[in-house]
Amino acid sequence: MKTIAPITVNVPSLLAGNKYAVDEDHAHIELSPGPSADEFRKLVMVCPAALYRLDEQNAQSFDYAGCLECGTCRVACGNTVIAKWEYPRPTMGVEYRQG
Amino acid sequence: MADFDAIVVGSGLAGAVAAHELARAGKGVLVVERGNQAGSKNVSGGRLYTHSLAAVFPGYASEAPLERRITHERIGFLAPDAGFTVDFTSDGLRAEGRDSYSVLRAPFDQWLASQAEDAGAEYICGIPVEDLLMEGSRVTGIVAGEDEITADAVLLCDGVNSLLTRKAVGYAGPTPEATAVGIKEVIKLDPQVIEDRLLVPEGEGAAWLFAGDATHGVPGGGFVYTNKESLSIGLVVPIADLLTGETPIYQLLDDFKRHQVVAPLIKGGEVIEHSGHMVPEGGWDAMPKLVGDGVLVAGDAAMMCLNLAYTVRGMDYAIAAGMHAGRAAAEALTAGDTSAAGLQGYVKALENSFVLQDLRQFRKVPHFISGTKRIFDTYPAVIRDFFEKLFIVDSNPTAPVRKAGFAAAKQAGLLNLARDMKGALSSL
Q1: What is the enclosing helix (H) or strand (E) of A82?
Q2: How far apart are CA B37 and CA B31, in angstroms?
Q3: Which DSSP state fits B107?
Q4: H helices then E strands: how many in chain B?
Q5: Which residue, among B110, B146, B112, has the nearest Cα to B131 in the 3D structure?
Q6: 10 Å Cβ neighbour count for A34?
Q7: pLDDT in tens, A9-68
Q8: Does B275 contact A42 at a Cβ distance shorter than 8 Å?
Q9: How far is B405 from chain A (nearest CA, A)?
């Protein structure tokens, strides 16, 4: 896998100012089981909310809470490891107050 | 008999304007918007060129919630350790109907939706359209939540991440090559501080686009727009190009915010929103079919956007396309034919307008920009080296300017420079 530059920014603290109605019972994005390192790297690179993460041991994690609903992961990996991409259910998800 | 004459999916710029035009023509129109209010799922850079808004709402300058009229245009080239900026201002940038304003989409889209509602459009908010109703190849309505709602014409104005254009008009995109990821933060600052830092007159604003180290050398760029009480700062990077680099988009933004040219602008400001949105940058060659039986596509859903590096446009195209889509759909409804043939008036109107003429004219630009990596890594360094030769004075004998210029050009490779100039001239 191609390397990823060191991450120094704390994105969750930047997302703290956003308004969300998180749908705890329903994931609107789902990954195929066991995505390859190369495909997962794409998701890490492109998600503006940093929801796809690799820890020091390169273990993968993903959390749809915090999603900005941009669809970038769908365009990057919709034919590979993004198994499901829907918009959040009615009234749920991000609510931009600036835009 | 259908439930409505027309259903508009999405109350962004194209959708709200299309609904406004349909309602004004006396048609029964329903707008289905997935945000709890119009604008609450939307993001733009953003700067709006007003000419197409003026064509629909002549009183826009006093009525619409605009931020600042842009009277300073800046283009910056960033090397990791240097920056060079061109700054242009002119009274010509202040002419009503030919001017541009920074906008924030949450308030702006709400205003636009209220114009459509006042004209008679019905609204359902907070529900995404999950699917289209079809009869053969004809779109006959929508599925939203528990409801199936039919219409003689469906207008897809559901944005760059449309999940419906594939079924409606067979669109295979958007692709990672033709789509950029946009990341943006809105940073709150005192209006006076904004004006002092950006060197703009009271109430006016600046647009500042950046190439080079804004994206650590991968094709793409950065932007800063002044709002009334905040700065919009962000990056737009084609997805396929971003993957060739090593820095994730959110780290690129943080690095951009720390660059010596950018950091003083935002110092002490509070990030009040962090957003992401795709930008359809593929141009003409990435566009879907604009009509099908019972269906029209407008705005970002139709990939109507142009990034020419010195200016980025999409919102004025969306407003014009929404206007033409609404008017053509109304005419087709009156004529009783909303087949693809009956809706051709929309395509013809766009072909006769700046929308498709611009997109066709500049169709080679996306390939040129993404294919000319030197704009983003080599040239900013060349510019730095040239100006360092000019401005750094020490005890060595001073080289003539022509010599410094020639040395800089040689550093990039004269052949490369000639080739890239030719590419720029033939596409731009």
Answers
A1: strand A82-85
A2: 12
A3: H
A4: 16, 19
A5: B146
A6: 8
A7: 999 999 999 999 999 999 999 999 999 999 999 999 999 999 999 999 999 999 999 999
A8: no
A9: 34
Of A17, A71, A93, which is closest to B274 when you measure between CB atoms? A17
Beta bridge partners of B208: B74, B224
Q: What is the mean pLDDT of residues B39-53?
A: 97
Q: Which of B41, B179, B273 sits opposite A98 (nearest CB)?
A: B273
Nearest Cβ partner of B242 from A3, A8, A46? A46
First to last CA, chain B: 49
Q: Look at residue B403 in the predicted model and tell me its pLDDT.
A: 87
Whole-number percent of chain B with pLDDT over 90: 91
Contact B405, B388 (CB under 8 A): no
Segment B81-89 mean pLDDT: 98
> How far apart (Å, rounded) are the C-alpha atoms in residues A53 and A45?
10
SS3 for B72?
A: strand
**What is d(CA B323, CA B403) in angstroms, rounded to the nearest whole number?**
55
Determine the pLDDT at residue B401: 86
Judge: A96–B39 Cβ closer than 8 Å, yes or no.
Answer: yes
State the average pLDDT over residues B273-285.
Answer: 97
Asked if B254 and A8 come within 8 Å (Cβ–Cβ), the reply is yes
The CA distance from B66 to the nearest CA of chain A, in Å, is: 12
Among A70, A74, A85, the residue to mutate for chain B (most B Cβ within 10 A): A70
* Prediction pTM value: 0.97
Would you state the structure tokens that stand for residue B13, as one six-digit string? 């710029």
Is the torsion defined by CA of A86, B158, B233, B74 positive or negative? positive
Give B253's contacts in chain A (Cβ within 8 Å): 9, 48
Q: How far is A33 from chain B (nearest CA, A)?
A: 22
Residue of B nearest to A88 (CA): B128
Using a CB-CB cut-off of 8 Å, the residues of chain A touching B179 are 72, 75
Q: What are the structural domains of chain A?
A: 11-95 (3.30.70.20)
Q: Hey, are the CB atoms on B276 and A97 less than 8 Å from each other?
A: no
Phi and psi (nearest 5°) for A33?
Answer: -65, 140
Mean of per-residue pLDDT scores for chain B: 96
Q: What is the b/e burial string over B298-314, where b = at least 16 CB atoms within 10 angstroms of the residue's CB?
A: bbbbbbbbbbebeebbb
Length of chain B: 428
Binned at pLDDT 50, 70 and 90, residue B399 comes out as confident
What integer is the mean pLDDT of B223-230?
A: 98
The 10s digit of each residue's pLDDT in B185-216 is 999 999 999 999 999 999 999 999 999 999 99
pLDDT surpassing 80 at residue A1? no
A78 burial via Cβ count (<10 Å: 0-12, 13-18, 19+)? middle
Q: Which two tokens stand for residue B74?
A: 């800046």
A70, A85, A87: residue with CB nearest B128: A87
Contacts of A9 in chain B (CB under 8 A): 250-251, 253-254
Which pLDDT value is given to residue B173?
Answer: 86
Q: Which amino acid is at B14?
A: A
ipTM score assigned to the predicted complex: 0.98
